[in-house]
Amino acid sequence: MIEFRNVNKVYEAGNRALEGVSLRIEDGEFVFLVGPSGSGKSTIIKLLTAELEPTSGSIEVNGYKLETIKKRQIPYMRRTVGVIFQDFRLIENKTVFENVAYGMRIVGASGKEIKARVPYVLDLVGLENRGRRFPHELSGGEQQRVAIARALVNNPAMIVADEPTGNLDPQRSYEIMMLLESINALGTTVMVVTHERELVNRFTKRVIAIQDGRVINDGMDGYYINEEN
Amino acid sequence: MIVHGFMSFAAVCVTVACLVIIGSFSLIIYNLSIFVSDMEQQNRILVYVDETYDTAEAKSVGSRINLVENVREAEFMSREEAGRRFIEQQGGGEAYDGIDASTFRDRIIVTLEDNSKMEETVQQIREIQGVASISDRPELAEGFTTIQRILDIASAAIIIVLLVVSLFMISNTIKLAMYDRRDEIAIMKMIGATNRFIRFPYFVEGFLIGLISGVVAFFLEWGLYNLLDARITEMQSLQLFSITPFREILLPVAVVFGVTGLFVGMFGSVMSIRKFLDV
Lengths: 229, 279
Description:
The structure holds 2 protein chains of 2 kinds. Chain A has helices at residues 41-48, 74-78, 96-105, 111-124, 140-152, 170-185, 197-201, and strands spanning 2-10, 16-25, 30-34, 56-61, 64-65, 81-84, 158-162, 189-194, 206-211, 214-219. Chain A is of the alpha/beta class. Chain B has 8 helices and 4 strands; from the N terminus they run αβαβαβαβαααα. A 4-stranded antiparallel sheet of chain B has the order 2-3-1-4. Chain A binds chain B through residues 49, 51, 72, 75-79, 82-83, 89-91, 93, 102-103, 106-107, 150-151, 154, and chain B through 3, 183-184, 186-195, 197, 279.
């Protein structure tokens, strides 16, 4: 569960990124966080992964209260949130299998556990035959699937996808969304941050719209802000 | 474990170069110090005993000199021995045949612990009953003391400067290697790796860089030292200056190189990674 209570964020340069943001995402939900560039979406992700601290307000992520969290607890909080990025962020000199297994190694999983879990997750994202390939040998869509597999491998309570389809063509984008929807169907909370209106409107999901650092809409009506507005 | 081979290789090269430079300089200073110290030891005080004293009494003067603070050794030389040595030094021959031992005086050859205190020590010896006169060369002793002090200060200053420069160079090289890996570290942090987990491979890598650097630098130093030894022996036929054989200082040099290499490697790695962990 994620809860933002009246969160404000002002950067050192004086830019106000968020203003009085309050939102709550329950376990098992699928939510789109939408808004134009510079609206504050990325700030929300950085806040909920504890990359940034809010100027005021409180944030709770999967039971961790971020205003009081100790530095050494942050890695453990992050393990409850699988983050997927637009640029995939895979380790180039590791194979697909090793990239996914890496997520398990950091939590101290044994070799036996890794050998059992990684093929299962690769199968889930449709990459069962790509384990020995290196990231540069894969298409963009496949690389994003590897990133999803890595985010999923430790069975996190939540997946946060930051513009996961930004580097993909419409067909691959739709496939990735379908994959995230199937992951959500298995019980994982999914939050997708995007500015792709058409894609959002193809799914009937909760949409939280942000503009100028404020939540301007939160509902199931597929509302989307036009960047030109 | 060593992920980015070239940067690690660069770190090893820089560490080896720094260790060899500091090591060579330290060994040169060490040998110069020994040389100066040897020269200093040769600067002895000659104490002449009252000529009315017989051998037993003269020896007792030597025993009393031995009790003076700062006296390392007081060696007795009889007038007969002194005469024999004098004739030997002059090349012998008939001209010296008639010289009687009584022409010479019994004497005590005194070696000091610290030549910088020569004046006070000579004064104390002078006060001992039976001491007729003293032959000392305070200006020479002072000269050696000054040289030794200059060597000490210069070597300490230069070694500190070299060490700081080395640490700076090594730390920068390792930082460059870390910078090369900042994306990887950021990914690790994002997927929930603890700082300890991230540091560990870099710590091991630092250990290996340090160990390899220490070993390579040690053998390189050994080779250079022996080369220098051979050149010095070849250059001077009189053997006025000889350097300590490497085998005699092998163990301390190996320990210093090993410990410094390991310290610099591990400390450099762990310190350099700190700023990249703050994500």
